[in-house]
Design a protein that fits this description.
Number of helices: 18
Number of strands: 14
Largest sheet: 9 strands, antiparallel
Distance between the termini: 70 Å
Shape: flat
Structural class: alpha+beta
Number of domains: 3
Radius of gyration: 28 Å
Helix content: 40-55%
Strand content: 15-25%
Length: 521
């Protein structure tokens, strides 16, 4: 009797599916930080659909396995995927780039599938693995730039639609002036709250449509123009209703109801595309069976020859990841000491300053740790120099330096000229910065800006992020700052005169900047 039980236990534990389940449990423990980050992202409106995606992916995988019934032939390729996933988790925990660990989680799932089920089963479940990507938030830098571009595009199209309806309107960047009411197209109205869930739904619709590839690609890619057009129509509709019935139409329940209505229209448009494509050209079909539970066996013939060795190696790798994660989690990030920017001097040589402050909604969007904003002027000058320093003690998701090149168009200014320059200061030290000439109507301004990232003077945000990755690993620091100088061009003033004014101020303020912004330690 005892032998029979022992034999039964051996039959269970010798199965690759059993050890695959053990590996999954180890993986979820090893990647717990990435899972918590994902859960936090799913609490935001842009990614609130993310909680449904793993369940839908599981349903997709189930249907695919019952259709194909692949043979179980464990593959050594799974070890490579696990190694890459472990490296991505290590990078994420040593740096501010948590998103890479979330992509690593998907790779690890693919690795476990290869190691315990084999290539046939993994290829069969490929659509489900790909669908999981829609649950992962974009890197903050990419999302911030995309949001700014969509805000401006939606505002412009919304104004064009309002013009067609004869509504008097004036656009200044992301602000739509309706006369008695100024409608600001903020980040929440950029359209990303439609785009991300709509793309995930578009992928499902395209996959379930069994027809020509070009039709399926069209349905998926059409989610982008549908989002932009419908979001612009929503902005225009808000403008019309505000013009007719007042600003209450842009607030509260009415505003939220409009948002849900527009999203449901987007879904209806996608389904209308599917209906049309089913009736033109070659006759395809929509796989409605995927909307229910699958039936039948999952796998075909089983081969476990490689399973014991793959099991041992994979479990060892996962245990190593768990051990390494436990050590890294206790690493303390270094935040250098520095003076508070509220003590920054208002007198710099013959320059006299007047301190300003950022609006609460701007501060909420920037999520910075400290800043200084003031207008400085010399007695001999007719124009001021606006000086702004933004400091981030730590740069993680949602809290990173923002490039003026991305923000300026949103304020209604056009960038007429942009170039990178190296300016030689009076003390002999060079400083590399971005120089912009911007215009709005008859007004023009000259802008200098650069990022001071732990002693590195950087002009490009992409390069700043690479330094951030490197320094977070080897210096245990992610602090950084943005410095921006702006001076108006007086009517008829030569550009060279304004440039000299900025250079004079830069020479005298640079020493103070180094006091308030920590360099390399």
């Amino acid at each position: 009797m005892t032998r029979s039980k022992g034999k039964g236990l051996w039959q269970i534990t010798s199965k690759p599916l059993f050890w695959g389940l053990i590996a999954l449990l180890l993986l979820f423990f090893a990647q717990r930080q990435a899972e918590m980050d994902l859960f936090s992202a799913w609490q935001t409106e842009e990614y609130s659909h993310g909680m449904l995606i793993p369940l839908i992916a599981l349903l997709l995988a189930w249907h695919r396995l019952t259709e194909i019934k692949p043979n179980l032939r464990p593959s050594w390729l799974g070890i490579g995927f696990i190694l890459v996933a472990g490296a991505l988790q290590l990078i994420a925990q040593l740096s501010a780039f948590s998103t890479v660990a979330e992509y690593g989680l998907v790779l690890a799932l693919i690795g476990i599938s290869l190691a315990f089920l084999g290539r046939q089963a993994t290829v069969a479940m490929a659509p489900a693995f790909f669908y999981l990507i829609f649950a992962i938030p974009l890197p903050h830098l990419v999302q911030a730039n995309l949001s700014e571009d969509l805000q401006l595009l939606s505002s412009t199209l919304g104004v064009d639609i309002l013009d067609l309806f004869g509504v008097p309107v004036f656009q200044q960047g992301n602000v739509i002036d309706l006369g008695g009411y100024r409608l600001q197209v903020v980040e929440a109205c950029s359209g990303l709250r439609y785009l991300f869930p709509l793309m995930s739904f578009g992928f499902l619709a395209a996959y379930l449509l069994e027809d020509r590839l070009w039709k399926r690609l069209f349905i998926f890619l059409s989610t982008i123009p549908i989002t932009i057009i419908m979001n612009s129509l929503r902005i225009a509709f808000i403008g019309v209703t505000v013009d007719l019935w007042g600003e209450k139409m842009a607030e509260g329940f009415v505003h939220s109801f409009e948002g849900w209505t527009v999203f449901m229209i987007c879904i209806a448009l996608l389904m209308a595309e599917v209906w049309i494509f089913l009736r033109i050209g070659s006759k395809g079909q929509f796989r409605y069976v995927y909307l229910g539970l699958a039936r039948g066996t999952l796998f075909g013939r089983e081969s476990v020859r490689k399973a014991p060795w793959i099991t041992a190696l994979l479990c060892t790798l996962l245990l190593a990841i768990i051990f390494g994660s436990g050590l890294i989690e206790h690493r303390t990030e270094i935040i250098p000491s520095r003076p508070q920017m509220a003590t920054f001097p208002l007198e710099l040589g013959d320059w006299r300053g007047r301190q300003n402050s950022l609006a609460p909604d701007v501060l909420d969007a920037l999520q910075l740790s400290d800043y200084w904003l003031a207008d400085y002027k010399r007695p001999k000058d007719t124009e001021t120099v606006n000086f702004y320093m933004a400091y981030y003690a730590t740069q993680h998701v949602g809290s990173m330096t923002h490039s003026p090149s991305n923000c300026i168009p949103g304020g209604g200014w056009q960038i007429e000229n942009s170039r990178v320059e190296t300016i030689q200061l009076a003390d002999g030290s060079p400083i590399r910065l971005t120089r912009l000439l911007i215009r709005e109507g008859d007004e023009a301004e000259l802008v200098y800006y650069w990022f001071d990232e732990r002693g590195h003077d950087i002009t490009e945000t992409s390069i700043a992020k690479w330094y951030l990755l490197w320094d977070s690993i080897f210096m245990h620091r992610t602090d950084g700052s943005l410095i921006r100088l702006v001076t108006p061009l007086a009517h008829g003033e030569d550009e060279a005169v304004a440039e000299k004014r900025l250079n004079d101020f830069l020479n005298i303020v640079n020493g103070e900047i180094k006091v308030f912004i920590p360099g390399a330690i």
